[in-house]
């Protein structure tokens, strides 16, 4: 449950009775650009990931919000997605947050590119980039300005702007609650993956990405930015992203998939297919 204390099961059991009034509230909210204060209150709960339980860094924070507000959010998300598809705002490359393009499909496509280069006797470098703390660092004003620049209608952008303003949250752990705190950034996450060929071309792209990150008040997690080199004749260009990037060991775990020295990912490709 979110801070409103209304369990989703209640809404599901009363769906025939609440659908019409909720649809009226949603439409009025969208047309006026006003968002209920209750919808902008979040309970933050912690989910254990791995490692030592006493280490706070091993927990993932998850926001629990009012279910009606979450439904309204999903309705607008569908509208935003259709607009981006119709206007072709997002290209063919992005995966993970694009319908029908999962991270696993991205791995299959990347694997195909790398093995094709290896078969031709070409040395290939795959650069893995990870944005640091994107949950906490995406500025609201930059996000809204980008929505306006890409032609989203005024009602939608005004609603999103209102929804982002004056959000409050509290942390709930084992029944104990913190004080309400203001939220200053949007919950987003991003990972940039680029299998590229040619030392100068890769470095130029890395320089462009670094400028983009600074312009959007974000930064890369240097500890997770790595290079995976393939083929024995690899010239091993030195790449930098603020500082020199570290090489990955092929036997390590890359984006959730184990790669051995022969880059044997056939089982993964078969599974996805």
Description:
By secondary structure, this protein is of the alpha+beta class. The chain folds into two domains: 8-88 and 139-182, no CATH class; 103-133 and 192-260, no CATH class. 40% of the residues lie in helices and 21% in strands. The chain contains nine helices and 15 strands. It has helices at 8-13, 15-32, 67-86, 103-119, 134-137, 140-149, 154-164, 199-215, 266-272; strands spanning 41-48, 59-64, 124-130, 138-139, 168-173, 176-177, 181-182, 185-186, 191-196, 226-230, 240-241, 243-244, 246-247, 253-254, 257-258. The strands form five sheets. Strands 1, 2, 5, 6 and 7 form a five-stranded mixed sheet that branches. Helix 2 (15-32) crosses helix 7 and helix 6 (140-149) runs antiparallel to helix 7. The chain is globular. Residues 184-197 and 251-263 have low confidence and may be disordered. Keywords: Nucleotidyltransferase, RNA-directed DNA polymerase, Transferase. InterPro entries: DNA/RNA_pol_sf (IPR043502), RT_dom (IPR000477). GO terms for molecular function: RNA-directed DNA polymerase activity.
